[in-house]
Amino acid sequence: MRRVLPSLLIAGLLVSGGVVSCGTSSDTPAPETSTSAPAATAVATDHVDQVAPADARTITDPDDPQATLVLFTDYQCPYCAMMDDLIQQAKTDYGDQVRIVVRNYPLPKHQNAETSARAVEAAAEQGKLEEMAAVVFEHQQDWKNQEDVEDLFVSYAEDLGLDTQKFRADYNSDAIKERVARDLQDAQDLDLPGTPSLVLNNEVLMLDSVDYSAISEPLDSALNK
């Protein structure tokens, strides 16, 4: 089940001066749109390998992808909750042509960004990445300011029919912690502006709206539609 964000929240996000992402620190506002801003910025050659490692999680993985779209997300970011629905639409529309990769960018300013990323990663170990992401986004207000969220995330896993003992073990494992930390380091090395960030064929897209056209238009261009 996909979540529905409160209409007032959506309105606030969309009209706040063109801001379409969570900034990377509490002192840094999210990027704003500019008429002179480029549509995309190429990833530096020495960082290309950090965009989509071979073991990165995929939402779609066709045998012969014509393009690769990488989402860097923060599960405590409200813009990422909106973007997740757009990614699901892109999966439906482009899944047989485009490899869609999802990676973690848990902003240090968000109290439970790292723990929620671990929850989604732990669910991914049982094939439920997208389902857990949807639940975590849907209940964002319930856990974002909690001191201890592990039991709550375990309850989500139980609702999804996961093996909760394995989920808890993976959630606390060094492997999952290291995966999330590596994703964060890669996002920082790529100098991504905030969350969500989209990288299409090794070019960082400049998001000027949280609207499906932000994905569909560059994808159509990349696919020569």
Automatic annotation (TrEMBL):
SUPFAM superfamilies from the UniProt entry: Thioredoxin-like
Pfam families to which the protein is assigned, alphabetical: DSBA
Parts forming coiled coils: none
UniProt domain Thioredoxin: residue ranges: 31-224
Signal peptide annotation: 1-21
Keyword hit for Lipid biosynthesis: no
Protein name as annotated: Thioredoxin domain-containing protein
